[in-house]
Amino acid sequence: MKCRAYHVTPSFEWEKKNDRYTMRYDLENGKEIAKCKFPNKKFDLKFPEKENIVQIFTDGSKMKKGSITHVGFATWSKMDEFNFTCTINDIASIYTAECKALSYLIDNITNKNYSEFVIFSDSKKNEKILINLSKNKGTFYFEHFYVNKNKPWFYNTGLSRKSTVSINRIRCDHNSLNSNLYRHKIVDSDLCKCGEDADTVEHIFWCCKLSKSERETLLKEIRKEYKIGPYSVINLLALSNVRILNTISEFIDKIDCKIKNFNHAKPRSNSEKVPCDTVFLAL
Fold first, then answer.
1. InterPro entries per the record (predicted)?
2. Residues 242-265: pLDDT tens digits?
3. Sign of the alpha-carbon dihedral angle for 210, 213, 216, 221
4. Three-point CA angle 264, 242, 215, nearest 5°
């Protein structure tokens, strides 16, 4: 696997309009069609076929036969090039399957030469994600850590530059753990190398068996300040307790953790930022 490094965050090179792009969506027609006595006829009236406009349907499903569970998704269109079926991890939910369907489809239609795509999905949760894409940018940091001060959080903490960088990566939710790399399509799985759960900051600190001995020291030091758990890395960092910050820093330094090393993936070209002009979610 090769990761490219950049002097600035790749997203800063994108056109500003792409950060605030909002897909058009339609829920009312879907509700109206669902209540209709003849839904198929109503659908054809609402969404007639038009030249150079591609209609595509997505669906996710989860079925259990005996002790075996099957989870997958599919996309379908009258144009064969957009027809696809895929089986995913059997522990995934129907919601995850629906998201995978939309994710696959949007990636697939990015460079197609059609003026407009209309995507139909029966998942209302996906609609909320699409609507709030631009609204959610940067909210993690401001919800957990923002304080209106003239000096940075690490002022007078005595932390090394290396420790400051590692903690900053946790604070802004950008690190080299598999959960983050998978979200940006850099690796094929978000699984931790212990094989038991997703490779997240909270998992590394509190659950991963590969850092068990280091965790004992971590918990011993934390309990000197806060005797009662459970603990959260994010909540502990937000307290700005210098002793806790040093304890967390020491834990990161001792374990084999990818929080300390981060390379950015190759950014998408500007033409890929807005993959489809219209998204209808017919319920």
1. RNaseH-like_sf (IPR012337), RNaseH_sf (IPR036397)
2. 999 999 999 998 888 777 654 444
3. negative
4. 70
Question: Residue 225 is encoded by which pair of tokens?
Answer: 């300040």
Strand partners, 57: 76, 120
User: Residue 85 pairs with which residues in a beta bridge?
Assistant: 74
Cα 122 from chain centroid?
A: 21
Q: Biggest alpha carbon distance in the chain?
A: 70
Angle between helices 161-171 and 242-254 (to 10 degrees): 100
Q: Kindly give the pairing relationship between strand 68-76 and strand 53-65.
A: antiparallel
What is d(CA 77, CA 279) in angstroms, rounded to the nearest whole number? 15
Sequence-distant (6+) residues with CB within 8 A of 138 are none
Contact 240, 153 (CB under 8 A): yes
Q: In the chain, which stretches have pLDDT less than 50? A: 1, 262-283
Would you say the C-alpha torsion 181, 184, 189, 195 has a positive or negative sign?
positive
So what's the pLDDT on residue 7?
A: 53
- Domains along the chain? 22-136 (3.30.420.10), 145-261 (no CATH)
* Single-letter amino acid code for the residue at 13: E
CB 75 within 8 A of CB 84: yes
DSSP state, 270?
Answer: G
pTM, whole model, 2 decimals? 0.46
pLDDT in tens, 152-208: 888 888 888 888 888 888 888 878 888 888 887 788 888 998 888 889 999 999 999
Cβ-contact 70, 63 below 8 angstroms: yes
Residue closest to 113 by CA, chosen among 81, 83, 84: 81
**pLDDT, position 133:** 52
